[in-house]
């Protein structure tokens, strides 16, 4: 059972994408249009866990080799990041230089979502791609494959 995934071939649709690709698309569009600000809902305080799809692939390969149990295993990075920190990191990776505005009249949603991946870690798996490196890779893919279309 994977945590929040991101990476190449993600869904960047403006109405039904997840938080990370949605932020990436919004910051990219704001950068291109030279917008002065990007408004983000809530306070940015909720914590989320993200995993790059290539790390999930590595976990699946390891599980095919080392696991034959019947119960599911969680696959997560084990690292939480506040939505505010994530948003600032996406802003940096995209290169948006405008202002970031938090609309605190909008809801924050669930305060915390962190999976217990200790069983998988016990089998010798650890994620290798840092959030920043994964964002850089995802943004490069987005620009080369989604924006150009």
Automatic annotation (TrEMBL):
Classification via SUPFAM superfamilies: NAD(P)-binding Rossmann-fold domains
Full protein name: GDP-L-FUCOSE SYNTHASE 2-RELATED
The NAD-dependent epimerase/dehydratase domain, residue ranges: 1-76
Source domain of life: Eukaryota
Organism field: Salix koriyanagi
Residue ranges of the TM segments: none
InterPro entries attached to this UniProt entry: Epimerase_deHydtase, NAD(P)-bd_dom_sf
Lineage: Eukaryota, Viridiplantae, Streptophyta, Embryophyta, Tracheophyta
Classification via Pfam families: Epimerase (PF01370)
GO MF assignments: GDP-L-fucose synthase activity
């Amino acid at each position: 059972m994977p945590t929040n995934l991101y990476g190449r071939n993600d869904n960047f649709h403006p109405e039904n994408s997840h938080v990370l690709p949605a932020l990436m698309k919004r910051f990219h569009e704001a950068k291109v249009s030279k917008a002065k600000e990007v408004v983000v809902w809530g306070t940015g305080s909720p914590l989320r866990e993200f995993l790059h799809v290539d790390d999930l692939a590595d976990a699946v390969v390891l599980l095919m080799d080392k696991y034959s149990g019947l119960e599911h295993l969680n696959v997560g990075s084990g690292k939480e990041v506040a939505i505010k920190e994530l948003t600032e990191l996406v802003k940096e990776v995209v290169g948006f230089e405008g202002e970031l505005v938090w609309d605190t009249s909008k809801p924050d949603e669930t305060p915390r979502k962190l999976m217990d991946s200790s069983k998988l870690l016990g089998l010798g798996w650890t994620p290798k791609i840092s959030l920043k490196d994964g964002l850089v890779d995802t943004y490069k893919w987005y620009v080369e494959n989604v924006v150009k279309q």
